Amino acid sequence: MSTPLTLIDFYKADHRSQYPKGTTTVFSNWTPRKSRIDDIDSVVFFGLQYYVKEYLITRWNRDFFDRPKDQVVDRYRRRMRNAGIDIDVEHIEALHDLGHLPIEIRALPEGTEVPIGVPMFVLWNTEPDFFWITNYLETSLSSIIWGPSTAATIARKYRRILDHWIATTGGDPDFVDWQGHDFSYRGMYGTEAAMLSGAGHLLSFTGTDTVPAIDFLEDHYGANSDTELVGGSVPATEHSVMCMGTKDDEIATFHRLITETYPTGIVSIVSDTWDYWKVWTDYLPALREEILGRDGVVTIRPDSGDPVKILVGDPDAPAGSPAHRGSYELAWEVFGGTVNDAGYRLLDPHINLIYGDSITPERCEAICAGLAAKGFVPKNIFGIGSYTYQYNTRDTFGFAMKATAGEVDGELREIFKDPVTDDGTKRSARGLLAVFRDDTGVLRLEEQTTWEAVRGCAFEPVFRNGELLRDETLAAIRRRLREAA
User: Fold this and answer.
1) 274: helix, strand or coil
2) Phi first, then psi: what are they for 307, rounded to 5°?
3) What pLDDT does 426 receive?
4) Which of 124, 153, 309, 317 is the most exposed place for a label (fewest CB within 10 A)?
5) Following DSSP, what letter does each residue of 451-484 receive, concatenated?
6) Where in the chain are the domains?
7) CB-based burial label for 429 (10 Å; 0-12, 13-18, 19+)
């Protein structure tokens, strides 16, 4: 039997007895404090609604309030004592008797781009006897929310890169929805992480191979794949498919895929199983008429090497070689295309490329810039994987939940920390916090404010005493993010 009581660091268990006698309120906030990614100075807020629905409501009710008190209390007591944390459990029994989680959360709307240093939400206890519950939630809350916000922010960075280069080269802006494609699932640290990250990706794109991310958005964010495009993909091969067709007869595998298995529509074929350049100089020229005659797109997928050099060309390779020319030049030579009104070459619509190995925002930028410099619309698809979404931590944007105010014997105490050994990152805000939009729409933090300001600012009620008060939809979050561009 699981219990949300143990979704904590051990040191949280007895903080209740460490606060001053007479403590009745603990007020905390969730804030991105620092960006460790160049040119990102605001973070996309996403993931709180999932935490509220799945943890604060479903798990607290199912695994605590709806279970017999003696079962959950005895289990909690055993877990603490067996680890050397010998505390009384009267406060746990009292919470069970209360029958709901006495917490209020007020937050900015999800999908908001929040400047570094500005809180995304605040929370406090609604019953004086349960002041301890506010920061008791910190560990589980932090572990869930930093990830989707980080992924959504990095996806937003990719989106801006691709929007820029498609606009610069006169490409189709609607295609960008598909140009960033989530390949990260298998490289993420567990399925819940993959869902959270994959959902963050889908705020900016519609391309994904992370199927559970779509389930996640339907279950927790009001999405409906019957009536809206939540996320989509295409048939695609893997190396086992190509290998099974044998190296000596690889061209036959290509031929079978594009004429028999998928005679129409989009099919993506991994093409570096053996000799990627031979695919371009031998197989594809031989299959040119079949490809140009298909009602659909054949997408070639390189899966190794330096992404920039493979797509744009390697200046250090022998002059005139396939590696020197790069994939786009080879595709143009075999299939041709058109020149758009902006003067850029656009590959024939029957052929395209997707690259999903070790893509980063920097490589995405370099590929787009390099192709534009060669006169191409960079319409290839970027498979964005765990190399992007897993190589991050809570410190990527300095996320932290910290208490900044409390009440003791009816007196409001403004609390803060400012370590002399720190560079300023860990300096906390002070007192009750409110967030307002200035005349230009920019969010700003107001410290040392009042309860009236907290309740009257840009924060909106999200959760109170066991109930969800605001239910955001994927469509609304996407629209909010798009309108902020």
Assistant:
1) coil
2) -55, -40
3) 72
4) 317
5) HHHHHHSS-EEEEETTEE-----HHHHHHHHHHT
6) 4-12+20-149+398-474, 157-389
7) buried
CATH class of the domain defined by 157-389: alpha beta
CA atoms within 13 Å, Cβ hemisphere of 111? 20
Q: Which of 91-95, 172-176, 243-247, 254-258 has the lowest mean pLDDT?
A: 243-247
**429 Cβ neighbours under 8 A, 6+ residues apart:** 29, 31, 119, 402, 404, 416, 445, 447
Looking at 55-190, list the stretches that DSSP marks H as alpha helix, in order from N- to C-terminal side. 60, 69-82, 90-98, 133-136, 138-169, 176-179
Question: Which of 32, 149, 154, 125 is closest to 443 using CA atoms?
Answer: 32
Q: Is the pLDDT of residue 1 over 90?
A: no
Task: Report whether 246 contacts 220 (CB < 8 A).
Answer: no
Q: How would DSSP label each residue in 371-396?
A: HHHTTB----EEEE-HHHHTS--GGG
Helical residues (DSSP H) of 238-321, grouped into ranges: 239-244, 250-256, 276-278, 284-286, 288-293, 307-312
Contacts of 420 (CB under 8 A, 6+ apart): none
Indicate the Cα dihedral angle 8, 14, 20, 26, nearest 10°. Answer: 20
- Strand ranges, E, within 169-215: 180-182, 207-208
pTM: predicted TM-score of the whole model, two decimal places:
0.96
Return the residue matching tokens 């567990």: 190
Contact 207, 359 (CB under 8 A): no
Is-contact 440 457, C-beta < 8 A?
A: no
Amino acid identity, position 232: G
State the pLDDT confidence band at 472, using cuts at 50, 70 and 90. Answer: very high
Of all helices (H) and strands (E), which one includes residue 16?
helix 15-18
Q: What is the pLDDT of residues 35-64, one digit of tens each?
A: 999 899 999 999 999 999 999 999 999 999
In angstroms, the CA 71 to CA 43 distance is 41
Is the distance from CB of 247 to CB of 271 less than 8 angstroms? Answer: no
| Contact between 50 and 220 (Cβ < 8 Å) | yes
Look up residue 194 and give its two tokens.
């993959």
Strand ranges, E, within 1-151: 23-32, 42-44, 103-107, 113-115, 121-125
